[in-house]
Amino acid sequence: MRVIAGEFRSRRLKTPPGSDVRPTPDRLREALFNVLAPTIEGCVFLDAYAGCGSVGIEALSRGASRAVFLEKSRPALRALSENIATLGIASRCDVHPGNAASSISKLRADIVFLDPPYPREIEYELCLRALGESGAPLVIVQHASKFTHHLQEEYGKLKRVRILSQGDNSVSFYEPR
Fold first, then answer.
1. pLDDT at residue 21 above 80?
2. Of the residues 61, 74, 148, 157, which has the fewest C-beta atoms closer than 10 A?
3. CA separation (Å) from 75 to 50, 84, 96, 109, 152?
4. Element holding 130 (H helix, E strand)
């Protein structure tokens, strides 16, 4: 796992052992940040179900002013903390241990990236409903490509405006309607 572009380009990231954490593939991250390029500079980026933090760290590397990480797995939190320390970016990061679904709508961000473990499909629904009620500005949801039809087109104030697919993975973009 490595940072693809920007300030920390090619820097390696530590990942926790085992298969509980599924990092966002490099190609999908690259495609995602190519889409986000016009809006990433100076934003606050929330990485929910952050794992080792690869997506939030990529956002910082490409110009986000802050990254907020939500993660409850202890091995993932250890890897995330090591990555933040190794890159020297602690002053630009907020790490919130615990369940994302219960706290995601309480945190303010310009862009929310949501990537719950695929087997826990209920997490998508819980988070998207909470974010739809809060009126988050931009929500990006990573999911299995075959799961696309399980996500609703609208959640409260949010409406899906785009789907970007890379093989077995996709990201759906939701914006306020």
1. no
2. 74
3. 12, 14, 14, 25, 32
4. helix 122-134
